[in-house]
Amino acid sequence: MTEEKKQKMAGPKIMPGAEEELEYFIRIPEFRERFQRGNAVVLPRRDQEADGRGSTGKLFSQTLSTPTTIPRCIVMFDDTFAAQSSAKYWLPVTTCSVFYQLGTGVCGFGNICHGGIQTTLLDDVMGVLGVLNARLQDGLIPSNELGAYLPTRNQGMLDLTKSLFATEGIEVQFLCPLRTPQVIEVVVHLEEVDADGGSYKFMRAIAAAYEV
């Protein structure tokens, strides 16, 4: 294999359906810088995957998918998987970002995004991380190394391939007004998986807001 081909394979990965959203978000310098890192993977937040997960619900696929609410959104994570051998449960991807284009239709007062919408976005990204891990384990998102994300090959990896996800609780602190219209990045970080693998805790925050 030539050096040129090696570099090509190591570049950013664009999943089917993300091309149109990427064309919009790539104009944002912070997004573009992250995307150009060799391990970046982008995929659509709204898709048609038939695995019972993702955006098949009507809240994001219909209600919030209008020109004045959230017309565009895209998921990004880094495929930097390293095999582990642990007696504790763990997941291969522990952080991801969703970039949302917010319109004026999500405001509760003036040009400030409604607190309920902000909470919904935090909750959404938490679910996205679970779906990412499940799809990587299922092979719906190809890994750099064939079969790297199979739970059967990784001691202690929590198997999410047959799991559905629901929020048990969420605590939100509003630190400053979130004004619209603008693009925001919401980041989720996995803190820990409980001893029996039945639940996991997150630290999450709206990391940044970008002008377009």
TrEMBL record:
Domain of life: Eukaryota
InterPro entries given in the database record: HotDog_dom_sf, PTE-AB_protein
Name of the molecule in the record: Uncharacterized protein
